[in-house]
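User: Okay, second chain of the day. Same drill as before: sequence in, structure tokens out.
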Amino acid sequence: MLLKNVEIQIFKLDDTSFEPIGQVNEYTSLIWPDRYNGYAQFELNAPVNQENKILIKKGNIIWCGGDNAARIENILVEQKANGQKVFKVKGRTLEMLLTTRIVWGTYSCVNKRTSTAMYEIVDSNCVNPVLTERKIPFLECAEDEFVGHDINFQKTGGETYDVLQSLAVNSELGFCILFRPVEKRLIFKVLKGVDRTMMPASNDGSNYVIFSTDLEDILSSSYYTNDQDVKNVAFVAGEGEGAQRKVIISGEAASSGFSRRELFVDARDMQSEITSNDGNATAIPADEYNGMLDTRGKEKLAERQVAETFEAKLRVIGDVQYKYGVDYFKGDKVLVYDSDLDVLVAAAVSEVSESFSDKYSLDITFGFSYPTLLQKIKKQIL
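Assistant: Same drill. Structure tokens below.
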């Protein structure tokens, strides 16, 4: 069955061009995702015809309207039993561009909001780097809304995307790259969801949102929890050698007995003296340096929290109580209750996946998705 109910625009985006080149008019299925914290992967199946052969090329950008777009990265051509050839296309949303740059040198901040640190890292490595060759074309930063915790932070090297994710998770923030084809702009933006778990009398005036099997909002669901990798106390070791090494304890230092789970964090890369590009050295006060070590410890502990996710397919036909994009958005914290599983979750909308095939469906992941094997391996390597 060929579909035409969603407009799929294709753009050429390179160092000098940001232009629409056509529209995919025939396809058989599309899974279009949107994540709160980082990139997500789309999937498109379409017939091999003359029009699609021109449009479906690695590096081209796919856009279905809205804020996010994705880069075509993986193309497989298969032949069906009836002899027809089809494109199976995959790629990641544009946040993947942040994986192409590292934190060049050392970034350091003192008593700044998490969002400010994130914007400064993107600006200095992707938007306005000292080496102009490192600039990502058409990318700019949104205005800082100063959200998240106040942090003392230092990082040398590492992939920009990974650093942003660590900072965001620790402050319950998200980030995205907004796609603005008319203005030919890509805009990096830090996101902060709204807490919709409170009744309407809440101070922020946000709408109360609860999904429940009893209310028939949830068509199907799955629940996952895992605490085998949990750590809650970090022994953070900074610069120095032996007994002279600077150390702090981060996390739930007072926890004891079976509830105490310790983690060693090697932060030798964090230095109490910063050398600028002109060769001048500046000493960081001890309390500020300890604050940086504490932030590093909290980052590593945030990666070792209880994994808990609730994935649900929501009813989208008929008298729908809440509409995505109207009553709630990615990053918003909502309540979800499954009477069959006896699970009540207050968690953020971390990923939304719209599926267009012979019928439309909306799949939502509440909480941060449990790590895939690839993600686990990557963390071990880092």
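The radius of gyration is 23 Å.

User: Thanks, on to the next one.
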